[in-house]
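INTERNAL TRANSFER SHEET
From: sequence group
To: structure group
Subject: DUF2798 domain-containing protein

Please process the attached sequence and return the structure record in the designated field. Keep the field labels unchanged so the import script can parse them.
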Amino acid sequence: MIPHKLEALAFSFVMSFLMSGVMSATMLILESTTLSEAFVKWPNSWLIAMLVAFPFSLIVVPLTRRLMAITIKSSV
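Return from structure group:
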C-alpha cells in the first residue's frame, strides 16, 4: 500500500497515465490512415504524452482541488 503522504503523487501519476493513454490513442486513431498504423505509433506517442501530462498534473490537481473547495458550498 502507498503511504498517505504520497497520495497526491500517486493520484497524479495514475490519472495522467490513464488520461495520456486514452488521449494519445484517440488522437492517433483520428490522424492515422489505418488502425494498425495508429497502434504501431501509440507506445511512443503515449510516452511523450505521459512525460508532459505527469508534471502538468502535479500542478493542476492541487489547483483544481482548491478551486473546487472555494466553489462548492460546504454542508455544515
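Handover comment: The chain has a mean pLDDT of 93. The radius of gyration is 16 Å.
Transfer complete.
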